[in-house]
Amino acid sequence: MHRTNFFFMKDGLSELKKDLKKRRNEKKAKIYRRFFKTNRGEYAAGDVFFGISSPELNVLATKYRDISIRGIEKILHSEIHEARSLALRILVKKYESGNDDERIYRAYIRNLRWINNWDLVDISASAIVGRHLFNRDKKNLFILARSKNVWSRRVAMIASFYFIKQGVFSDALSIAEILVHDPHDLIRKAVGWMLREVGKRSLHKEEVFLRKYYKTMPRVTLRYAIERFPEAQRIKYLKGFEI
Question: At residue 53, what are phi and psi to the nearest 5 degrees?
């Protein structure tokens, strides 16, 4: 995948670049590279980290929230993970401000190739994609759920978190049904997480889904989904007893 060399762009974003550079922390970067699986053959192989924490990025997102959407897209094309994270945090702030929501959504979808790790998806998919599609046609969400790209599938599942928080579960459960036997661990965990969130608000809805799939769904998905269940009930699910 081709990426723009972030630190050689001449686009008026020099102060932001300097702010990222001066926060570079190689000790943290080494930890992040292990945590986010950047070794050869892993899901984030070759990703570049500066070791900048989420609280620091949130401060910068507030500072630079007035950057144009075009400028944000340029930042999002960076090879630096924290730059992409910062771009998405700014985009979320812009969406929450209530201006240019359609442009922001389209920019997000247009740049999905750079939203390429679970943390990048998780800070943005619900706040932008889920919120935007809540009262709109959700066809594109189901297209993403069937994508060959793991991050697009995770965007679809995590976007549904916005619906769940509004007390609307049908689309989240439909996407979970598409992804319930997904081969990728990060999708399995996302499905289990969203099922657990449904259960916090409607245990009945979650259990209807689980009764259909708990014997065949991946173990990690089931464990995430039933994490808050009473111990005796968890054991029944995990041992495959009839529920």
Answer: -75, 160
